[in-house]
Specification:
By secondary structure, the chain is α/β, with parallel strands linked by helices. The protein is built from 26 helices and 21 strands. The longest helix is centred in the middle third of the chain and has 85 residues.
């Protein structure tokens, strides 16, 4: 495997809690660091960004239809819904309103304080004033005039400015006039205030160009409808100066209301003029209408057709009643006439009396005559009882009866003629009244039409007269009917930048970015974490020989440390490896140790494994075959003057290169000077002869091979070794390095390769601690046997001498408390 393979893109697509735990253990602080950086950036942004303030006002439009007020509710006025609101919004956005609003403000001169990073608008934030009395050169408008105090003990002022690219200075006195050929400017104020502002930066002013300033400020103005149904409009202005924000909105509202008042008065005057014209026209029309009614009454000789109709109706009813009475009397006349036309009987005559009672025509003489006739008839009947019809008295009575009948018939004839005359007269009058009555509807319609025209004109004349008086009075004291629902106020806090929001978003962004970084580190994590992680990615043919704990003490070069303490964790781990080696090949003579790249600890493993083997009574030789980058001599604190390079070149003998260490039974041969042809020397026949000779002198030979992931020198040595060992380093070796192991099996045709994982961490975290003690050390995937030590001795039990110093702080505290509790119970 080449070094370029380390840069192969690795993406961890499957969830691996071991990698996640390692990422969190190593980089848990990254989100907090990124959050702190984001908050720092937010602070810098807020510190050096000019705050923007905002002031707003809400006004409500009250629609008033002047024409409708003048003409009444029945006036037809076609105004589209919402047109007044939209028109007013556009009107408030117009240059006309804004320019008139600016005229209410002091905008001739803009005064500014310039700091190191920010410039502050001093509108109404200072007590001094700058008044450009005269300006002879209009090109100076918009130019910067710097104010300086040349002497702290005098009232002298200097104005520094540019004219046509030339720097000029004008001098004068404070609270006086500064004159030159370009301008006359009056500056009034307190010298102490000038000095205070100048001590914090520069002070300058600009004579504003009204159109430029208007364009700039209008870009900061917002006019928008709030509630179309309520006809409310919000006016908002943003600026760096809060006082200017409030003043601009106030000026806008005042200008709008003033204009509305002006327009309102003009509308009132138009309405008054219109009402006056209508009154003139109505007065003429009203006169014509009144004359028409009068002429109609004179021509038709009636005052009111309705009254005339009622009168005629009453008269007709009265005539009909009289006609009925006369007809009844006439019937009575015919009845009397029929009774007396023949020989009347007293009974029949007597019955006529009730018929005549109550009738005016028969009252008086006729009724007396009938009564007298009735008496004569009664007398006749009485005489017939005593006398004969020839008796003179009876005849005399008959003559009286005949005389009375003749008189009665004559009276009845007169009454009959009279009644018939009355009936005829009544019928004639009734006919006349009926003719008049049937002519009345047409006259009534004409009269009503003329009367309605008169009343309508009279009503409108009265209405317009009242409205003319009302609008005349209103125009004298007119005020806008529109209302200010929310007046503009001085903003105490800026709307932009929003410090709370920016800090919140910065924190969220930092947290999200930190999590993304952790996810990225997880996805791109390419280091081997622990035994379980390594076993998952190793080829099936590889044998896992064991692990070596991380040595926490700093050392420049690999050293033998197993002789320091036989109860150390590293010593016990190497014993486990040594035991597992006996399962692989108990008669092994040559152990070749290599790795993928430099720095994975193959020299450390070789030296300490040799130390452990020599401690077990085996005569051990360590051979440094890494001829390019030798390190074994550093482990024994020896010189690297002569070694394997000299020996394989046949320049020295065995006695010249074999050196004795301070550990009994442990010898070593250094690499010697770096040769130009290391590969040829390692693959030479001399090396094979050397190995055969050393096998006769030593029980076991430990060869420190060059890393086979970089060079191929050591592959041949690994292939011919009794026990080839391949070292990985936890949290250092890349996961792609395992591909080299697969390559050694498949390409280089190695039959056996034993894996050692170096530098297992036991102190980094509680997670790592609990994780590491749980693993025993076994050998091989297909053998079914191995040697383990960790499962029977939990960390913190005091089995190892370095348990206490390597255990996490939490575990050490827990163990201390446990010991104290145990001692207290034992005493009891």
């Amino acid at each position: 495997m080449s070094i370029g393979q380390e840069k192969k893109l690795i993406v961890n697509k499957e969830f691996n809690p071991i990698i996640l735990g390692q990422i969190l253990t190593r980089h848990w602080f990254l989100p907090f660091v990124i959050i702190a950086i984001c908050l720092g950036c937010a602070y810098i942004y807020l510190r050096y960004t000019k705050p923007i303030y905002q002031s707003s006002s809400v006004i409500q439009l009250v629609e008033e239809d002047k024409m409708k007020q003048a003409l009444g509710d029945k006036a037809i006025v076609n105004v589209p819904q919402g047109s007044i609101l939209n028109n007013t919004v556009e009107f408030l956005r117009s240059d006309f309103i804004f320019e008139n609003a600016m005229n209410l403000l002091d905008t001739k001169v803009g005064i500014f304080s310039e700091g190191k990073l920010l410039t502050k608008d001093l509108y109404k934030l200072t007590l001094f004033t700058i008044n450009p009395i005269k300006l002879t050169d209009s090109s100076l408008c918009g130019q910067r005039f710097d104010i300086q105090l040349p002497s702290p003990n005098s009232n002298l002022l200097e104005l520094h400015y540019l004219k046509n690219g030339v720097s000029k200075i004008a001098r004068g006195t404070l609270n006086g006039k500064i004159k030159n050929e370009d301008f006359t400017i009056e500056i009034k104020g307190s010298k102490a205030e000038f000095a205070e502002i100048l001590s914090n930066g520069k002070l300058y002013f600009v004579i504003n160009k009204k159109q430029v300033l208007k364009k700039e400020w209008m870009s900061k103005l917002t006019v928008m409808p709030v509630d179309p149904d309520a006809k409310t409009i919000q006016i908002t202005f943003d600026h760096y100066n809060p006082i200017l924000c409030r003043d601009v909105v106030q000026a806008m509202v005042a200008t709008f209301f003033k204009y509305e008042e002006k327009i309102g008065k003009q509308n009132n005057e138009k309405v008054i003029a219109y009402v006056g014209q209508q009154l003139d026209s109505l007065s003429k029309v009203l006169k014509i209408a009144r004359d028409s009614v009068t002429n109609f009454q004179r021509r038709e000789k009636i005052t009111d057709p309705k009254i005339e109709s009622e009168s005629i109706s009453d008269k007709m009813n009265d005539l009909k009643r009289k006609l009925l009475e006369h007809e009844e009397e006439l019937v009575t006349v015919y009845l009397i006439k029929g009774k007396i036309s023949q020989d009347p009987d007293k009974v029949d005559v007597y019955k006529l009396i009730p018929e005549m009672i109550g009738k005016k025509s028969f009252e008086g003489s006729l009724l007396r005559q009938i009564e007298e006739l009735n008496k004569l008839l009664e007398k006749r009947d009485e005489l017939l009882q005593d006398l004969t019809i020839d008796h003179s008295e009876y005849k005399k009575n008959l003559k009286k009866i005949e005389s009375r009948l003749a008189s009665l018939k004559k009276s009845i004839s007169v009454i009959e003629e009279r009644i018939k005359g009355d009936v005829s007269l009544i019928q004639q009058k009734t006919k006349e009244l009926e003719d008049r009555y049937f002519d009345l509807p047409e006259k009534t319609l004409n009269f009503d039409r003329l009367k309605n025209i008169e009343e309508l004109n009279n009503r409108y004349f009265t209405l317009f007269t009242e409205k003319k008086i009302e609008f005349a009075l209103s125009n004298a004291g007119f005020t806008s009917v529109n209302r200010v629902l929310s007046p503009p106020v001085l903003s105490e806090s800026p709307v932009s930048p929003n410090a709370k929001l920016i800090y919140l978003l910065s924190s969220i962004f930092g947290a999200v970015l930190g999590i993304i970084v952790l996810i990225f580190l997880y996805l791109r994590y390419n280091e081997i974490v622990g035994p379980e992680d390594l076993m998952k990615i190793l080829p099936d043919k590889a044998n896992f020989l064991g692990t070596v704990p991380l040595y926490n003490r700093r050392m420049k070069y690999s050293q033998i440390i197993v002789n320091e303490s036989s109860k150390s964790r590293i010593s016990e781990a190497l014993r486990a490896i040594r035991a597992n080696m006996s399962f692989i090949n108990k008669d092994a003579k040559v152990v070749a140790i290599s790795s993928s790249v430099s720095g994975e600890g193959k020299t450390f493993v070789a030296l300490n494994l040799a130390g452990m083997l020599s401690a077990s009574g085996k005569k051990t030789l360590v051979v440094d075959l890494d001829l390019r980058k030798p390190k074994v001599h550093h482990g024994f604190s020896a010189e690297n003057v002569r070694g394997m390079s000299n020996l394989l070149s046949k320049n020295v003998t065995y006695e010249d290169v074999i050196q004795f260490s301070h550990i009994p039974g442990l010898d070593f041969i250094t690499a010697g000077p770096i040769p130009p042809n290391p590969s040829e020397l390692v693959l030479s026949r001399e090396f094979e002869i050397f190995l055969e000779d050393m096998k006769s002198l030593y029980d076991i030979i430990i060869i420190d091979n060059p890393p086979v992931g970089i060079v191929s020198d050591g592959v041949h040595v690994l292939a011919n070794a009794d026990i080839p060992i391949y070292v990985f380093k936890s949290n250092y070796s890349k996961r792609v390095f395992t591909e080299r192991v697969d390559e050694l099996f498949n390409v280089q045709k190695l039959t056996s390769l034993n894996i050692v994982l170096n530098a297992i961490e036991t102190k980094r975290s509680l997670y790592s601690y609990v994780y590491n003690y749980a693993y025993g050390y076994g050998y091989g995937y297909g053998y079914g046997y191995g040697y383990g030590y960790g499962s029977n001795y939990g960390y913190g039990s005091g089995y190892y001498t370095d348990d206490e110093e390597n255990s996490p702080f939490v575990i050490r505290v827990f163990n201390s408390l446990k010991k104290l509790i145990w001692k207290s119970k034992k005493k009891k």
